[in-house]
Amino acid sequence: MDAYGQALKAYFGGKKKATIKVESDIAETEYWPLKEFFHDWKNMSTIEREALKLCRGRVLDVGAGSGSHSLWLQSEGLDVTPIDVSPGAVEVMTERGLHAQHIDFYAAPGYAPLGGKFDTIISLMNGAGIAGTMDNLPRFLLTCKQLLNDGGRILMDSSDLIYLFMDEDGSALIDLDSSYYGELRYKMSYAGETDEEFPWLFVDYDNLEEIARREGFNCRKVFEDDHYQYLAELSL
User: Which of 74, 118, 219, 235 is the most buried (most CB within 10 A)?
Assistant: First the structure.
């Protein structure tokens, strides 16, 4: 199933008021406007802009979706390759003029058509979520390391969901016997199609920094907004 990809195709095909149904285990069902996936530079967040301005050399855009970030990088003269696991997303990106690849990120190191390693890997719009879980975060970073040239970097954003568990006095009530509080599960539906439920990780910066250093990366926080969302740069 590819409800996400079909929704992107519908919007790109002219259904400008289309929405996608999003269910999670932490919030009520939401309906996201598809136009949010097709935003241009002037409508991007500060985090997105800061990340894109830091890109250098060959760029791999992981979970590229509609390709908005890749399009801006391409317009700036960078050699960018967007990848996504959604066939529909790849179709849309191809029609938008990008050399998109339909591939699972974790299979990318052995995927010859990528044409070698990269200088920058970007994973934006809560891109750390591709790791899925805290236990899988080291695997995500190892895959990035296999795809990066010497001195390469990862630019990724995430959010610390601790605020969802805070009392009025600022203390947080966390069940230490349960899974990490930033591990969520999502399910997307569009026009009668429903994708399989998938895990998505929101990791706090301290944990990200500790795991990144353990995996051989230097880690710095580039930017943080007022809503616990931040941009991190991980460099070899």
Answer: 118
Q: What Å distances lie between residue 176 and 27, 47, 172, 173, CA to CA? A: 21, 31, 12, 9
Instruction: With a cut of 90, say whether residue 178 has pLDDT above it.
Output: no
How does residue 164 score in pLDDT terms, banded at 50, 70 and 90? confident
Single out the residue of 39, 30, 51, 29 nearest to residue 8, CA to CA.
39
The token pair at 202 is 């929101």
User: Which H or E element spans position 170?
Assistant: none
Residue-wise pLDDT tens digits, 46-87: 999 999 999 999 999 999 999 999 999 999 999 999 999 999
Q: Which long-range contacts (CB under 8 A, 24 or more apart) does 33-42 make?
A: 34/7, 34/8, 34/10, 35/11, 37/8, 37/11, 37/65, 37/66, 37/68, 38/11, 38/12, 38/66, 38/68, 39/68, 40/68, 40/72, 41/72
Residue among 42, 37, 44, 30 at smallest CA distance from 12: 37
Q: Structure pTM?
A: 0.95
